[in-house]
């Protein structure tokens, strides 16, 4: 965050000051929407959510060091009052970018955004000051909060951009216009809210490449036909990446190492270099290639990129997060979110990790799958059986029951259990687990299975 006075901020966002003693007081630290995460010298943005009204926590935020509150009503504390706090944060973020002008890299996709963002950040920060999205703060609030962490020294700003509806990416790229745009894939995540068809998801994701300037780069996954089809929607230069020989940035000689970790030869226009990933699952090759394509567009050579990818570690919780218990049980927490694509990748990665060890899957609902939801859950159940998991615990009523029914196959030998909620899932999993087992926990975030995974990991 570059220092800005309350007066400057009020002018940028069109705010009215209330209870402010000195309008020239500087804001010197990033903004926060959680009063527990306020940094001394920062701004507290009081947003109104479904369960919590940030205005009720204004006093605590100021006591914690906030200079003032960005609010939609007076709060009895130094406040900049605006009509729409979220919109005001976007205005402030755009103003900061105009002052410091870093290279903005925007990335989107149905799966893999956070892992790819983490990989790219770790490659770039070895070479220049880099700010990247924290956790999965990729929406209308999270993106400006990320931007407001940048300062005059920031060279690269890596922004994960989520899209739940058409128009979301147009809004986000309006706040932070990218010079490099990276599209990972098009899948069924949020398909219900986007129109019900995969083509609708592709239309929404393509808003990112439409926002790119002519001298920018559109990085497109050659292995995904929906992403490749976006080539005609951008003015920017196009760089293809993927496992296809047609890709300018590609992987060759992909091989699996111990603990389900992939190695490959990275090929870019600058040369060839070996990569050994520390992340679990063959699907991580695609995420690594996406990060490599962005780094290539920014001028890094193959050896520099390969070194960065090989040194990278998992940064975000709840995404194939592995915990080894003293009794030999391995807990794989992938419960941050779920859709059919990420569920399939996770199940296959866990089986590769387990080898001959006994495997237990604790799976809940995958949200926003529209009219195909029941069929897609049944597909996952059949995959559990086909991969020969030993135990499936299906959590919740409705679609998870379709998953359980599809996994019940006498010739596959899966022990299938259906439970009502997370509490029952934890109780049953705790009772069933044996020393040496590998347990995989995954569902959409609203199911709350992350709590189950953390409890199992700490058992």
From TrEMBL:
Keywords: ATP-binding, Cell cycle, Cell division, Cell shape, Cell wall biogenesis/degradation, Cytoplasm, Ligase, Nucleotide-binding, Peptidoglycan synthesis. Pathway: Cell wall biogenesis; peptidoglycan biosynthesis. The keyword Transcription does not apply. ATP binds at residues 109-115. It is found in: Cytoplasm. The keyword Coiled coil does not apply. It catalyses: D-alanyl-D-alanine + UDP-N-acetyl-alpha-D-muramoyl-L-alanyl-gamma-D-glutamyl-meso-2,6-diaminopimelate + ATP = UDP-N-acetyl-alpha-D-muramoyl-L-alanyl-gamma-D-glutamyl-meso-2,6-diaminopimeloyl-D-alanyl-D-alanine + ADP + phosphate + H(+). Residues 318-444 form the Mur ligase C-terminal domain. GO terms for molecular function: ligase activity. Residues 33-75 form the Mur ligase N-terminal catalytic domain. It is an enzyme of class 6 (ligase). Its main location: cytoplasm. Its EC number is 6.3.2.10. Residues 108-295 form the Mur ligase central domain. Involved in cell wall formation. Catalyzes the final step in the synthesis of UDP-N-acetylmuramoyl-pentapeptide, the precursor of murein. Belongs to the MurCDEF family. MurF subfamily. This is UDP-N-acetylmuramoyl-tripeptide--D-alanyl-D-alanine ligase. It comes from Streptosporangium pseudovulgare.
């Amino acid at each position: 965050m570059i220092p800005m006075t309350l007066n400057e901020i009020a002018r940028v966002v069109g705010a009215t000051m209330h209870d402010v003693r000195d309008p020239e007081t500087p804001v010197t630290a990033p903004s926060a929407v959680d009063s527990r995460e306020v940094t001394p010298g920062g701004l507290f943005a009081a947003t109104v959510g479904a369960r919590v009204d940030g205005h009720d926590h204004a006093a605590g935020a100021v006591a914690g060091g906030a200079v003032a509150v960005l609010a939609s009503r007076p709060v009895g504390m130094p406040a900049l009052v605006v009509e729409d706090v979220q919109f005001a944060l976007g205005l402030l973020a755009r103003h900061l970018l105009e002052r410091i002008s870093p290279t903005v890299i925007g990335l989107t996709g149905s799966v893999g955004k956070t892992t790819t963002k983490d990989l790219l950040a770790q490659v770039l920060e070895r070479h220049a000051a880099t700010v990247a999205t924290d956790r999965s703060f990729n929406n209308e609030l999270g993106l400006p909060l990320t931007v407001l962490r940048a300062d005059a020294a920031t060279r690269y700003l890596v922004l994960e951009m989520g899209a739940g509806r058409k128009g979301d990416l147009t809004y986000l790229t309006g706040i932070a216009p990218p010079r490099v745009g990276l599209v990972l894939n098009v899948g069924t995540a949020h398909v219900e809210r986007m129109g019900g068809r995969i083509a609708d998801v592709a239309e929404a994701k393509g808003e990112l490449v439409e926002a790119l300037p002519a001298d920018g780069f559109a990085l497109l996954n050659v292995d995904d036909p929906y992403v490749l089809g976006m080539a005609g929607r951008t003015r920017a230069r196009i760089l293809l990446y993927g496992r296809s020989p047609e890709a300018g940035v590609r992987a060759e000689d992909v091989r699996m190492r111990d603990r389900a970790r992939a190695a490959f030869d990275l090929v870019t226009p600058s040369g060839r270099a070996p990569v050994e990933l520390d992340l679990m699952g063959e699907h991580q090759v695609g995420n690594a290639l996406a990060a490599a394509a962005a780094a290539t567009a920014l001028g890094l050579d193959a050896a520099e990129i390969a070194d960065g990818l090989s040194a990278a570690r998992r940064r975000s919780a709840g995404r194939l997060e592995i915990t080894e218990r003293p009794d030999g049980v391995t807990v794989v927490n992938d419960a941050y979110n779920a859709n059919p694509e990420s569920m399939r990748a996770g199940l296959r990665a866990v089986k590769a990790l387990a080898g001959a060890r006994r495997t237990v899957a604790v799976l809940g609902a995958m949200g926003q799958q529209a009219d195909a939801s029941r069929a897609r859950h049944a597909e996952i159940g059949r995959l559990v059986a086909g991969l020969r998991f030993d135990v499936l615990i299906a959590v919740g009523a409705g679609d998870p029951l379709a998953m359980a029914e599809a996994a019940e196959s006498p010739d596959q030998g899966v022990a299938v259990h259906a439970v009502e909620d997370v509490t029952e899932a934890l109780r049953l999993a705790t009772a069933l687990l044996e020393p040496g087992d590998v347990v995989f926990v995954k569902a959409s975030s609203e199911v709350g299975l992350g709590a189950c995974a953390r409890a199992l990991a700490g058992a």
